[in-house]
Amino acid sequence: MSPSAVQIHDEVQQGSDLIAATMAKKAAAESNGTLRPLDASALKVTLTQNPQPVPEVDDPIYKTCSQCTDHMVTAVWNSTTGWGTPELKPYGAFTLMPTASVLHYGTECFEGLKAYRGYDGKLRLFRPDCNAKRMVISSTRVGLPAFDPAEVEKLIISLMEVDGARWLPKSRPGQFLYLRPALIGSHAGLGVGAPKEATLFIISVLFPQMDTVPGGISLLASEDGMVRAWPGGYGYAKVGGNYGGALAAQAEASKRGFTQVLWLLGDECKVTEAGASNFMVVWKTKEGKLQLITAPLGDKIILDGVTRRSVLQLARDRLSSQNGDLEPIEVVEEWFTMDQLLEAYQEGRVLETFAVGTAWFVGAISRIQAGKHELVFSEPAKYATQLKTWLRNIMYGEEDHEWGVVVNEKPALSRG
Questions:
Q1: CA 176, CA 197: separation in Å to the nearest integer?
Q2: 385 in a structural domain
Q3: Pick from 96, 111, 183, 179: which is nearest to 146 by CA?
């Protein structure tokens, strides 16, 4: 692992002293030459001889989130030698023993990002460095190996260099692919401990548009005994345990007619996240100050979402002063409770609420049910709409911005 990964860990301040010590130990081992680092420049490429047909954009297969592109990237790590040679090869199954660590102890982490076909014909990734940096934090949180995040970013780009041209053709501007890098404990053994082998893989999946929900996004506030994350836990890490443990509550919310769960924490009912997305409110304080408020990262409960980070930065840069018909707004990252949100709503001080994330993108909330209280938002979400427009313009090349990373496509290779 490179020193940059340790620096990232310190900057984000997410991870206990024990995790930081583990990362430092692994970095020292690699610098001494005892473990091979992950090296994207050594990528071995084997192209498929049987490329799949690319479905039309209205094909029902998109809604299943199961159709992958022609290739994937894999790399295997073990505790004795470090990282093996990464491979770009035809998409397909790989072997996993029934005693693999991931199947018993949840030793896995993952990321989610998208590749976008711009209206200018270019293929872009949106801030892939942020996803790669977050992934190394998640990895070490569950006892998996560290790595230089820049190498994972290069491997993501390599996959899109090959598959981007076929699966996001220039004739389909405004479309995207969902990318899923994941790292799993593949060591075969039931002993409780950090896995001695891990497998990295990166796949590209056809995904439906989810940023427009008929009737708007509706949220059911979590009840007593339903907790997504807690202080000192792993809410800040993108690991499967944060999602599997929430599925029963999500199913109940869906059965009652809601899109997702609004997760509350503790006796104070602090407002944390909306489903698997970050939650934001535009309101006026009792003193009349206009704020964009969202839960903070410092307690390691909230995921440091890339969309969250980007929305807050754009708001700070572009909405600190009058912007068209939008009044200046202050960005605040601090805790607020369901009671405070309800009080502000009853006093007419809540302008809009919205959720942000890779899947939902920027989605306005239309209704929140919290016990016997119902909060309904019928006015247009002007701030969410403007922030969404700015982000979309960057993603699809209508605004030249450093967050949009252009991929150098290799269409000749993608044909197999």
A1: 33
A2: no
A3: 183
CA distances (Å), origin 309, targets 117, 126, 296, 356, 403: 22, 12, 11, 10, 12
* Site of tokens 């704020």: 291
Are residues 185 and 47 located together in one domain of the fold?
yes
Q: Which helix (H) or strand (E) holds 31?
A: helix 17-31
Nearest alpha-carbon partner for 201 in 104, 68, 103, 307: 68
Q: What is the pLDDT of residue 208?
A: 92
Strand boundaries in 244-326, DSSP class E: 260-265, 270-274, 277-284, 290-294
The pair of structure tokens assigned to 187 is: 């060591």
Distance CA(248)–CA(220), nearest Å, equals 13
217 and 259 Cβ atoms separated by less than 8 Å: yes
Which H or E run contains 18? helix 17-31
Structural domain including 29 reads 3-208+405-414
Task: Please tell me the total count of domains within the chain.
Answer: 2
Residue 180: half-sphere exposure toward Cβ, Cα within 13 Å: 19
Asked whether residue 97 falls in the same domain as residue 221, the answer is no
- The residues facing 262 across adjacent strands are 221, 274
In a domain, 263, yes or no: yes
Report the 10 Å Cβ neighbour count for 21.
Answer: 11
CB 80 within 8 Å of CB 170: no
Phi, psi of 403 (to 5 degrees): -70, -25
Kind and range of the H or E element at 2? Answer: none
Nearest to 352 by CA among 313, 326, 382: 382
Q: How far apart are CA 28 and CA 38, in angstroms?
A: 14
pLDDT digits (tens, 9 = 90+) for 48-90: 999 999 999 999 999 999 999 999 999 999 999 999 999 999 9
pLDDT tens, residue by residue, 20-54? 555 555 555 555 678 999 999 999 999 999 999 99
Angle CA(81)–CA(87)–CA(88) in degrees, nearest 5?
A: 165
How many angstroms from the chain centroid is the CA of residue 193?
A: 27
d(CA 214, CA 353): 16
Question: In a 10 Å sphere around its CB, with 0-12 CB exposed, 13-18 middle and 19+ buried, how is residue 34 labelled?
Answer: exposed
| Pair 125, 405: CB distance under 8 Å | yes
In angstroms, the CA 297 to CA 354 distance is 18
Grouping H, G, I as helix, E, B as strand and the rest as coil, residue 278 is: strand
Q: Mark whether 147 and 250 lie in a shared domain.
A: no
